[in-house]
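In the previous chapter we treated chains in isolation. Here, by contrast, the input contains two separate entities that must be folded as one system, with a combined length of 342 residues.
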Amino acid sequence: MSTEQEPTTPQDELSQVPSTQQPEAEDHAAALDELQDRWRRALADLDNLRKRHAKELERERAAERARTAAAWLPILDNLDLALAHAGSDPSAVLEGVKAVRDQAVDVMRRLGYPRYEETGVPFDPTRHEVVVAADDPDAEPNTVVQVVRPGYGEGENQLRPAAVMVSKRQE
Amino acid sequence: MSTEQEPTTPQDELSQVPSTQQPEAEDHAAALDELQDRWRRALADLDNLRKRHAKELERERAAERARTAAAWLPILDNLDLALAHAGSDPSAVLEGVKAVRDQAVDVMRRLGYPRYEETGVPFDPTRHEVVVAADDPDAEPNTVVQVVRPGYGEGENQLRPAAVMVSKRQE
């Protein structure tokens, strides 16, 4: 019983099944045997497909994990480089680390999780998590006045909301 | 036609199928109809399983990507923190960056890709990529004398081999 063979559609195969109107009992028995065989094969295909899917799922998960982790290799390499050159010039290290941070933000963006840290925008409960409500007479009420921790990704692809300070609503 | 219903095993259902030895043509026709119905249902299940699996695969890929990327959020946060405190004390920045690098190496390890950068070990083509063969009279021949770039992960989970300098084989 081949498991690789694609089953044909019901329409295709049914047209080849001997008619149920045939008068001879022998023909009926043969038709029944053939149908039983096809049905058994379909159930076996179903079973094999399930097993194959479970394996495929595991393989794809591992591949996605490897792809995502590999995107961070340059960050690690550049942290190593920044530290290797640390002895010579501390301010150069600082520049190097800034560049690595920007590169890491870009890795997140390319993976589908852009960073957001805007202030002055209206509070949005789907993107912002309020850590403190601030009394700020100069700010519009219910507005992000400071981002304590940036957010990454949006909607279904949100890794985390931005942690923000929001101006109080006017009483 | 329900797609959620688990099909019973061929053994179960075949035992309920009227015997092919029944003499009456009517009974045969009924048995044939029932078998056709079961077979059609199995093919429909097969089709639905395929569609469901394609969706599941996409969902699981996205979930794995999010899980893996989220492991890097603390690294980004700590790079931000190191830079935020940069003005005060350059040597403190250096300590902070070292800690971030070690943390990043640990993220890789937890994701299943431990770092390796040993020297003095025999050259292993599955873990090492030779960037240069060195004349080193003090070293055992065919030994890793320097790691130019660490490797991450091993075997099936290898992200990349270590780039190394290897002492030449003795002539």
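Confidence is low (pLDDT under 50) at residues 1-5 of chain A. Helices of chain A lie at 10-14, 25-70, 73-84, 90-110. Compare these points with the single-chain example from earlier in the chapter.
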